[in-house]
């Protein structure tokens, strides 16, 4: 799979970074003399998307991780930019009542989790606020369109896939086996991961008992879903516990759309097509990963799902022909793209063909709202609702499902793709 960035990914990052600063107000851009190593006493005003606390030092914005809104903390400056600075947490002077003791002894060092210090109901409220703010600021989407975050019934022990790394530690003259630190590319040596399923922690023990011969090696550990064929390098959702609610959410949108045909772009091993195929007369799934497509076909046979097919190839190249098979007014397109979002060609095609419904699934809300801006420009499509699901408790990440409806009955050649 080509992992190169889409042409707009760099600007997307810049917009997201700028939005962090704008959240603190126009005075963000006041120049201030801060130097590395400065120790500051700060009051945390907000938590930015990504998990860092937002504070001010004489109107200059300072980002501090592992804090809670309202807390007073001591922090040491570690990075100074023209418009903001970063600092590491030294001490919590006045703790928030929403702060809890992290379950993992490596929290704050390991880069895997950002919110273990927050009570779980507070994590859900924070993620809802962050998504609502992001969609309103970048997409001008009213908070009323954003549903409450669907909680995970098990905030720990839920991940079914992790990647651990080995790195030579010259000081102890041995390997560190674990995850990257939150503040560097060094590896935190650990024996278990609190958000991973217990079976994965047994696999970590096995790796540590039989370590790789050298550092610099990445090892993917995963638990395969029961009843599904998933090749080792193919994608599958990482949280089995909340997965039924994700299917329920996507399926609910599909039912409300009332369409007869489903085009499942980025279909992977066919999960959504096969789980929801009974709701439509026919479906077709498209996926770049040819090994995954072969697995999808076998998964269809296993499930006795005979009203659809799976096609291998780039979605942006195959969608034109696939969409031409069905009447647009009777078709739903399901988008579950990689984290970077959809290619411009895909969005351009959807604006031209105008299926009755687009259901967009994404673990990167900033990429989703960027793509929604394109689809909904000139009122070609309209956002009906966004449902966030906490597929990644104790981390900054959140899954979102958007229900998008077409407002134009027929193609208008005058419409153009907005400048990105």
Tally of separate helices: 9
Sum up the overall morphology in one term: globular
Biggest β-sheet description = 7 strands, mixed
Class computed from helices, strands and strand pairing: alpha/beta
Q: Got a strand count?
A: 17
Alpha-carbon distance between the two ends: 24 Å
Name the helicity range.
Answer: 25-40%
Low-confidence stretches: 1-30, 409-420
Task: Compute the CA-based radius of gyration.
Answer: 23 Å
- Helix and strand sequence: HEEEEEEHEEEHEHEHEHEHEHEHEE
In short, what is this structure?
With 420 residues, the chain is of the alpha/beta class.
3D structure, described in words:
There is one protein chain. The chain is of the alpha/beta class and 420 residues long. It contains nine helices and 17 strands. It has helices spanning 9-23, 120-139, 198-209, 243-257, 271-276, 290-303, 315-323, 344-353, 365-376; strands at residues 39-43, 46-47, 53-57, 60-64, 72-80, 85-94, 161-169, 174-180, 187-189, 218-222, 261-265, 282-287, 308-312, 331-335, 357-362, 381-389, 399-406. Mean pLDDT is 90; it is low at 1-30 and 409-420.
List the helices and strands and how they pair.
Blueprint: H1 9-23, E1 39-43, E2 46-47, E3 53-57, E4 60-64, E5 72-80, E6 85-94, H2 120-139, E7 161-169, E8 174-180, E9 187-189, H3 198-209, E10 218-222, H4 243-257, E11 261-265, H5 271-276, E12 282-287, H6 290-303, E13 308-312, H7 315-323, E14 331-335, H8 344-353, E15 357-362, H9 365-376, E16 381-389, E17 399-406
Parallel strand pairs: 4-6, 11-12, 11-14, 12-13, 14-15
Antiparallel strand pairs: 1-5, 2-3, 3-4, 5-6, 7-8, 7-10, 8-9, 15-17, 16-17
Helix pairs in contact: 2-9, 7-8
